[in-house]
Design brief:
Helix content is 0%, strand content 50%. It is an all-beta fold. Strands 2, 4, 5, 6, 9, 10 and 11 form a 7-stranded mixed sheet that branches. Strands 1-3-8-7 form a 4-stranded antiparallel sheet, with no helix packed on it. A hairpin with a 4-residue loop joins strand 7 and strand 8.
């Protein structure tokens, strides 16, 4: 049974930082691309960042480029999202996802999803 479990969310002031983690089990994680998506109340789920199976390529939404960094540790089957210079508009539920394809931006290419973790940025 495949599981993706996110952690690290919470409440932070604007300008602060958080580091999200997503631990995977039940799959050969090193053969999967991984991504982070977010969904704010009343809005559609949107792409945040993704990383190739090797970690050699990363992809970001324009809204987070330069502030967020995605990374992975295949030995630990874990993907991370370091979020710096957080803004109130970053407030959302953050989800990690995994997919075996060489595709990153669309949510429908991801086969497995975590339950999500709440990130709240106060002004």
């Amino acid at each position: 049974q495949v599981q993706l479990v996110e952690s690290g969310g919470g409440l932070v002031q604007a300008g602060g930082s958080l580091r999200l983690s997503c631990a995977a089990s039940g799959l050969t994680f090193s053969t999967y691309a991984a991504g982070w998506f977010r969904q704010a109340p009343g809005k559609e789920r949107e792409f945040v960042a993704a990383i190739s199976w090797s970690g050699g390529s990363t992809y970001y939404a324009d809204s987070v480029k330069g502030r967020f960094t995605i990374s992975r540790d295949n030995a630990k089957s874990t993907v991370y999202l370091q979020m710096n210079s957080l803004k109130p508009e970053d407030t959302a539920y953050y989800y990690c996802a995994a997919n075996p394809r060489d595709s990153y931006y669309r949510s429908d290419v991801y086969d497995y999803w975590g339950q999500g973790t709440q990130v709240t940025v106060s002004s």
